[in-house]
Amino acid sequence: MPRIIGRDERVTPRSGAEDIVAAIAESTRASLAAVNASLGEIAAVACSAPGPLDHRGGIVHEAPNVVGFIDYPLGPRLAEELGVAAIYLDRDTIMAAVGEAVAGAARGARNFIYVTISTGIGGAIVIDGRLLRGAANTAGEIGHFPVALEGPRCGCGSYGCVESLAAGRFVAEAYGVDDAARVYAAAAAGDEAAERIVTRAEKALGNLAVGLANALSPALIVIGGSVAEHEPSHTLEPMRRAIADRAFKVAAAAVKIVPAALGRDVGMLGAVIYGRERVAGRDEWFR
Amino acid sequence: MPRIIGRDERVTPRSGAEDIVAAIAESTRASLAAVNASLGEIAAVACSAPGPLDHRGGIVHEAPNVVGFIDYPLGPRLAEELGVAAIYLDRDTIMAAVGEAVAGAARGARNFIYVTISTGIGGAIVIDGRLLRGAANTAGEIGHFPVALEGPRCGCGSYGCVESLAAGRFVAEAYGVDDAARVYAAAAAGDEAAERIVTRAEKALGNLAVGLANALSPALIVIGGSVAEHEPSHTLEPMRRAIADRAFKVAAAAVKIVPAALGRDVGMLGAVIYGRERVAGRDEWFR
């Protein structure tokens, strides 16, 4: 398991892509300076980004929850800004899945789905030890599987997406607050509006879980992300119950649903492990 | 393309699995007799069955639309009844996908999803030229991906499944008739109840299409089945529109949605091609 030796966290600028690149570069330099290191000593630089994106060209196609990333060459721009030859850029959920596969809850698993329930909802699909990419590299974007016939507009422009019903950002928005934790607390205190929102989120997650179990039949589903970590009784547990109650019996019996192991640093740890794998010449698969 | 030289069709008995086996055996003998052939001259016997099932052991686990198939050894029982050494049994949708891949609309495609919209809704997922099976062999059972937060009970015991909202059987049931064609005709004539059912079915199919495009990002979706064949404007077309309007742009641009090519005989042609592939030693993949 890699260890994080330097850390620098900043709020993502809402003023456009170039400001985000500048902030990441500054943050990188600050975290290196804090441990008296320089870019020249670094074996690899990896960047965990929101998707959909093109990991080979380092292009972010669209990022529903970030302002300014539309067909934006984040990898090349960041490499330029930092003065390094290459950046290993990939989707945050791909890096988390690689991290969980190499050092977390999916160790040894050759067929699993990683699901993150956080500000947004996303995931990655691993089949026979390989990442499923798909024709447009969006494979694993399970947060944008529509699981309801109507609902609020999602950040992706669609509606009914499990993300738009159950992700932290949307649970908070539906209640008119800026933190989903307040909605779960209000529901626990018996507030009916909060209860309705939480119930709808649980039903949406249940639909996703049943659909994944039936249609992909993974051996393992690993559930991470800040909302899942803080609210397992409203995320992992209703997903488990939905599969037990509603999926095909054989598919339900074949799948384990477990919490992610790398915790809140999964994005960073995943990127470190991903960078190491890429430097070692491993690409669409990993061990 | 194989040619069908003998044919015998019968209504599926509702009186249990043993009666179904007897009917299949009789039907097999009748179709052989009609062309003066015998079982001894047959290179392979293949059986296209409803799923989920275990294609290696020939066991049908559950079949939402058939009475009596619960963990039933259909393959071995049929082999016994016909006096043949082996039956190549697999899910109807797997056989249709193999048929379309070898001789139909998916020729040359290494990554595609086959979708059938018929009495039920099902499918098969092909990745890098291999069938995705999953841990419990239900992979591709996309008809039981829930796409609504509520709805009538599905044959599988769950609710919200795209099958329970858009399959022929359920479209007919929702209107209180026994043939979905009557519902589409009534909707075309302006009947409001029929219009509501048809709209709901289209929305459910749209959700499925968007979810498949985003989360699996296939290069090709092939749409077959009797309802799709008769009602493309209520099936294939709304699926295409939903992907264009609501899926990630890169995923929408990367996927083609086309009608199946093998028509109403896809089950039989698929089984013939599948049997030929298995006899040739090809198993989870095909060319």
Q: Stretches of chain A where pLDDT falls below 50 for ≥5 residues?
A: none
What class, by secondary structure content of chain A? alpha/beta
Task: Provide the β-strand percentage band of chain A.
Answer: 5-15%
Largest interface: A-B, 53 and 53 residues
The rounded Rg of chain A comes to 19 Å
Main sheet: strands, sense, barrel of chain A: 5 strands, mixed
Our count of helices of chain A gives 11
Helix content bin of chain A: 40-55%
Overall outline of chain A = globular
How many individual β-strands of chain A? 10
Q: Give the strand line-up of the largest sheet of chain A.
A: 8-7-6-9-10
Instruction: For the record, give the distance between the C-alpha atoms at the N and C termini of chain A, rounded to a whole number.
Output: 13 Å
Spell out the helices and strands of chain A N to C.
HEEEEHEHEEEHHHHEHHHEH
Could you say how many structural domains of chain A there are in total?
2
Q: Write down the CATH class of the largest domain in chain A.
A: Alpha Beta
Question: Oligomeric form of this entry?
Answer: homodimer
Mean pLDDT of chain A: 94
CATH topology name of the largest domain in chain A, in short, is: Nucleotidyltransferase, domain 5
CATH superfamily of the largest domain in chain A: ATPase, nucleotide binding domain
